[in-house]
Amino acid sequence: MKMSQSLKVNALGIGIFAAITAALIAITFVLTKAPIAENIRKQKSAKLFEIIGDTATDNDIFAQTITLDGSTFGYSNNIKAHLAMYKGEIKSIVFPVISPAGYSGNITLLVGVNADTSIAGVRVVTHTETPGLGDKLELKKSPWVLAFNDLKKTPEQRWAVKKDGGDFDQFTGATITPRAVVNAVGKTLDYVMLNRDTLFTYINNNTNTGTQTGSESNER
Fold this sequence. Notes:
The chain contains 2 helices and 5 strands. Residues 208-219 have low confidence and may be disordered. It has helices spanning 3-52, 176-205, and strands spanning 65-68, 79-86, 89-99, 107-114, 119-126. The longest helix has 50 residues, at 3-52. A hairpin with a 7-residue loop joins strand 3 and strand 4.
């Protein structure tokens, strides 16, 4: 067989192999996409109920949402904030938040805020922080995140980690991670305090309990 023919055969073989590989990858993606999405939904639902805790609610917190501009919360598109309601009145709103300032990248959070602008709770959804150091923001690793519960942003509350002159503990050997979370939660509270009447008064008067509020497109 001439060299040119051998090269053509080899090239054809490589092309077929590449096509088969690409097809297998595509099939794997399709088959795993739905289970992954369902796992994320279950994880998020569990954290939503952890945040709301003992607050009396009578609606589907996961399904009932409002659409907001995501830029305040670290997103480039709209977000869906979750409503905890009782007898048609919003008790708490849980916001999806991204802090891009983590030591190893983005930290995604759920930040729950009550109608009186106190914090219902904070939970970390995903992160890539250093195991044994930055991962103390996970509740299963440390109770640190519970320090946000019931807090309000007041002049008396120094909203920063202690290394920056604030009231929040940092982790031993890790300051960047807790700083990122503290700042992201504080920014969320600022938004709620500035827009409280719109969020808790207007929406209360324009929300149908048990139905989803807001567009489905371009949301997180």
